[in-house]
Task: structure prediction
Amino acid sequence: MSRIVVLGAGLGGVIMAYEMKDKMRPTDELTVVNLGATYSFVPSNPWVAVGWRQRKDISVDLSDIFGKRGITLRPEGAKRVHPEENRIELNDGSFIDYDYLIIATGPELAFDEVEGLGPGANTQSICQIDHAESAKGAFDALVKQPGPIVVGAVQGASCFGPAYEFAFILDTALRRARKRDQVPMTFVTPEPYIGHLGLDGVGDTKSLLESAMRERHIKWITNAKVKKIEADKMFVDEVDETGTTKAEHELPFAYSMMLPAFRGVSAVAGIEGLTNPRGFILIDKYQRNPKFSNVFGIGVGVAIPPVGKTPLAVGVPKTGFMIESMVTATATNIASLLRGEEPSAVATWNAVCLADFGDEGIAFIAQPQIPPRNVNWSSSGKWVHAAKVGFEKYFLRKVRQGKADTFYENLVLDMLGIKKLKELTIEPAD
Ligand SMILES: Cc1cc2nc3c(=O)[nH]c(=O)nc-3n(C[C@H](O)[C@H](O)[C@H](O)COP(=O)(O)OP(=O)(O)OC[C@H]3O[C@@H](n4cnc5c(N)ncnc54)[C@H](O)[C@@H]3O)c2cc1C
Result:
């Protein structure tokens, strides 16, 4: 009998638990440690922030569902992982021992790295449901008293799709409220060009996104380093290819949402050999930590190097489809270890993203994520909005049913003509 623990019950951790349960032996024990007992679908947060979704629409209480599937839920959250001792210290002071640990704790939001950034200071966030709800209050105030918007991401960010998505969603929501004509919008990003997305562009994302922004009257500043943010003004340095400031901007705003840089959560940060200097979990091609061979990492919390050099720090996004392939590889590899075999499953790590504009959207696929690629595809249209809504409904139904199958994802990939994209590769150890 082995004790398997999944740390974190977000997008990666929940499907990890379901897939691990299907692949482990009946005698093995599975425990999930999370901060709280509720799953919340992060990709819908931009809709919450303009009132198109409520918290209850995108949240699931995991207690009963996990209970029915024979998965123990510990909602206390982890204070510290002790990989040398194979145990986790929980926030209530108790400990859990494990034979295998899968870390799926997602990002800690580094608002403190820019003065005045974040919901505790002068800008809104859509990274968590609580932030999105308070951003909705700020959006209502904007509709009552319109003024300029600054939206985007700060230096070091790695999640650009939601920043673009939210700019277009705000545009749609303000047009519907008949207030768009009173709201100048500026998109601010450390990316070297619009549509870089941390992936050095995918297909035609540069032209597609630039053209969508022109059509919707959204100005932009790229290579932008946010120096500080006051209550109603953002101070931005625009740098050249060498990183030297070439222009200084003072951007007044009535409403601002800026995505922060991410880092690893404090329960794992600073553990020699487990994490990199930013607290992300170090993994090999089997999702396994090189020093602690019974520890695996999946999701936004794992370390991935940037795709190339940029004047300002621009991280690689970790999207849902990529995370699913990490989950399948990890479950397969731990199942191999349980049978006394070596891990051999390697996640494909392809980037597939549906960026919704509220009425239409842009989709892109990068396979592999680092160029040159076999698939480098992007497209736009109303179907993207429909596909995104479908993905939300399907994913939440899957979480509520406690199922690990990926029928809809396969369907979407089928629609896009690349059904086999998510298959694992099997690579024995070198
Ligand atoms: C606004 C936004 C929109 C996005 N939209 C999309 C999209 O449309 N499509 C897409 O593919 N990707 C999207 N992403 C990217 C990515 O898919 C999501 O961020 C996804 O939620 C990441 O999954 P995860 O499991 O790594 O982390 P999370 O979903 O953030 O889950 C982490 C979990 O770990 C728990 N945790 C943290 N610390 C501890 C601790 N100490 N102890 C116990 N538990 C802990 C948290 O409570 C949480 O439940 C989006 C990201 C953001 C921020």
